[in-house]
Write a structure and sequence with these properties.
With 390 residues, this protein is of the alpha/beta class. The chain contains twelve helices and 13 strands. The chain has two domains: 4-11 and 264-389, Aspartate Aminotransferase, domain 1 (Alpha-Beta Complex), CATH 3.90.1150; 16-259, Aspartate Aminotransferase, domain 2 (3-Layer(aba) Sandwich). The two termini are 30 Å apart.
Length: 390
Amino acid sequence: MTRSYLDHASTTPPRPEALAALTDWMTRPTGDPGRLHEEGLGVRDALEQARERVAGLVGVTPREVVFTSGGTEAVNAAVWGVVGGRDGNGAGGRAAGPILCADVEHSAVRDASARSGPVEVIPVDATGRLDLGWLEARLQTSGASRPALVHCQWANHEVGTLQPVHEVVQLCRAASVPVHVDAVAACGHVPLDLGALGADLVSLSAHKLGGIPGAGALLVRRGYRVQPFVVGGEQERARRAGLEAVPALVAFGAAAAVLGADDQRALRDEMTDGRRHIAAAIGAALSVDGVEVVGASDAEDRLPTLICLGVHGVEAEPVLIGLDRAGVAVHSGSACSSESIEPSPVLEAMGVDANHSLRVSVGWSTTDADIRAFAGAFSDVVAGLRALRN
């Protein structure tokens, strides 16, 4: 059976350029990039080229790029770098105030924050967008209740809603409160000029844009200082200890180079294709009674590569299984992973029934045939399940 993979928001297939870079790298002499011999210097050159490519894609200087093992580590490093090691009184010079974090943030952001101190929830509307008025007022407080850190994702990983990230960063900078932007879901799918954004910390991941798993980055604004999350060495300018995963990072750089070349032509082309594919998927889904778009309805207010669908009358898990048997892979909002049976807290925060929500996400390798496969299978699967229920 020919498979149609429409779960790119979870992980997207490695680009040919990333695989080629990885394969080529594995044939080269090994070496520690921290050593001064010829082998080490060769690895250092490759690592710094990857850093320059990632920096170029998102509009920052290479010195601001701290390589990590992925987006999850980058998020944890961001939180620890600002508030790690503090006690309730802000020991070690760390602010004692709460971390501001919406429930629509990724679990890595929410869990890392909850482990590091008190968390105060930023309200969101029915589309999952942050309440800017609430945030602006909250940032005016002082003393022990002054926020220690604010999180704002660039785009939501479940429904695709784009956040007012520029406004959030401006409010935080004006209030002198550190701000972390989770750009994992957005990077490689929409243009990111992070140098102009001015956020203190930004998290990225390679496997979401066509790299391979095991590589990511924490962007640290020039002049901003954080304490390292991983200690035990002086790698990454003493900001992240441990020998870098050079093969994965070289592939990360190759994927970033594809998207950043020719004034980001590939990125813009993929955005166009993504909007077309998602529009076709929406059209097919909405032709079935009792199906609606969850989150932002305007295409300009969400990622061009992702849509969340509410399916009334049947639960999403059976729809997912039915589509899988038909050769179509999507994601259900009723569980973040096969290891969890808990409903998505993102959808719950939006007041959406996660048990009836389905996410379809496309990527660089998606074809028109994949969308036709979804369109053909979706109506049959939903109709069959509704017939069983009746």
